[in-house]
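S.,

Sequence below, as promised.
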Amino acid sequence: MKLGLFTLMLSLPSLFYAQENKESSSANTFTSGSAKVEKFNNNARRFNDWSISLGGGTAFLHHSDLTSFNNDGKHFGWNAYVELGKQLSDKFGFLLQYQKGETKQTGRLGDNVWGASPLVHGLATATTKYDQISLLGDFNFSNLFRRIDNNSPFRWALHGYAGVGLQGFSYSRRDEHPKKFANKDFTQKLGIQSFFYQGGLGLKYNLSKRIDLEGRAMYIITGDDEFDGGGEDVKEWPGYNQILKNSSDNLVTVNLGITFKLGKHSQHLAWYDSNNAALDKLSALASRSSDLVVCEKGDADNDGVCDDWDRELNTPIGARVDGSGKALDMDFDGVIDLTDKCVTVPGLVENYGCPYIDESTLVIVDENTKKFFEGIVFDLDKATLTQKSIEKLDIAAKILSKSNKNARYLVIAATDTRASDSYNLELSNRRAQAVIKYLVSKGVNPNMLIGEGRGEKDLKYPECKPATKCPEWKNEANRRVYFELIK
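The prediction came back faster than expected:
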């Protein structure tokens, strides 16, 4: 029966946590409770969840034949413990505990045992030393019941503990009249034959992000009628195990302890106040004016982007825009998607965004056509064509292969401002040659193309020197190749 109860008690904390984790949105090691799913690895950790605790104090027998508090006086013992803690959520954790202690107790047979004549026997004194290993569930009641209208710092926390464990003990009893009841020494080794139950409360104070202080009181049910030193068979009358008819000697421990919170994060999971975090969000929302003005300067072109940050204040009605208010141009040919008849194919402005081919006269001379050839960019420190650039060059090759055969074009390549001038010049030359090589492979006359590397001397965005002063999209625009007609 003891083994069955032990198994049941051991499984209760796990069942509680499994139910809580399924039904609630409490915080755990990887999330603050705002989402149900978080990638489960060490890089996703947001809180510390391990701790080591040390503590000590007094111990005394309460419910036993020989007691620590009686007419013969108060007999205090001592108790000490060390724990390894693992916090599973802001409301629940586990503690693996080792504790050691000693109790002192006395009893008088003649005055107490049922049916015995007064003064049948004298005073017996006993000392019990014990070692215990246990697994405890740690219930954080402050996170379960904390009022959300309290804006004070979360410094105090009430904890409840319950668990089971294995124990070993030894007692030494001395009697005033050894002729009737001999002195007795007894030892029971730590093992499954004697396990115990314990539960109690602790009040913790969050001294710093690394240290907690705690006052704790625990009630320990030893499950053994010989723990106090009575040690006599109940069939033997009168015996010390008959002063009080019970099957378990129970003791109380009162301790002061210190907890060291382990980990690299600034907050331990046990001190995450999810209720106050929710209150802060609600308060921030409540404090906002109901007459909140979204656009102080209005939205003149009605494109959904406030004039305060709209980069194009005259967007045509019906045009789709990006986050800065500029009309979208999917193929970057200078014709916005609203009026572009070839949305995905770069073309000419005068042909409504569609390319056209005139075998005798087509050359790259106007600015709109030149813009089309400027969309060839490279990855950082690379001279390899990207897929995006290849798609543009395929169209460029069709145009150039049917252009005026006497036309000559500079294939100008540039870099951003990273690396040295000499390296960037060499890199830009390789980029120009990569473009020429690809166009020739697509049928373009090599005599029409002359490569020229300009390194970082031809920046599209000159303010990007050094590169760290600009966002990456501007640096990418500086790493480009474009065409220029030689007149």
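Residues 8-24, 34-38, 113-120, 357-366 have pLDDT under 50 and may be disordered.

Coffee later?
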